[in-house]
Amino acid sequence: MAVADVKPPPAAPVVERQTGASMMEQLVPEITTHALSYLDYSSLCRLSMTNSLMRKAANDDNAWKALYHKDFTLEQDTMTPVNGWKAYYAATRAIMNVNAQFFNIIRERSLPAMSLFWLNADYVKCIHATGEHFSGHTAVIQGWELAFNMEQGVDFQVRDVRARVLTDMAWVTMKADVNIDDEPFYMTNVFEFHNGRWYMVHHHSSVMLGDGDMVE
């Protein structure tokens, strides 16, 4: 047989690959979204800065919805955020941090910090668990001054925190315990957004007795 008559073996099939693409980037969108649901807030933000494909995946609304349900308690089950779940997650995270700052101010009994924390307006109101009611910025801060002078430092253990955030208003409901043996405080904090930051405009604290009666 002549050498020219010998046929070369068939070439191996060519597998198409995306040049430079990672295995994560080659997954179908549904699997990618499911995988991203296991990431925390910081990891999801870092992932969005790697490249355009991962930025698109990390900005997917379903991924942020899953993260919201993992990190926060939803105040309204049927809610659909106007600006998407990523924006709503960021807004909820911000108001949760502000709400935590309120309790840090109480623990430190810092009257200057409390004064700056409240919106300087006549319509702000504060109702303490003792039943004392204060209206207007000056009276509200005087009420906190009385509380700080009369009480020892209080370390609230906050639980069952739920937040609802609108464009320029938010409210947070929660239970707060001082001692395990005492009845919990039921609290509502209302905030308004002014000049780039959140201010408290209303605080209501009540003690729920064992028989279900509420003391204001």
From TrEMBL:
SUPFAM superfamilies: F-box domain (SSF81383), NTF2-like (SSF54427)
Alphabetical list of Pfam families matching this protein: F-box-like, SnoaL_3
Residues covered by the F-box domain: 21-67
Superkingdom of origin organism: Eukaryota
Protein name stated in the entry: F-box domain-containing protein
PANTHER family from the UniProt entry: F-BOX PROTEIN SKIP8
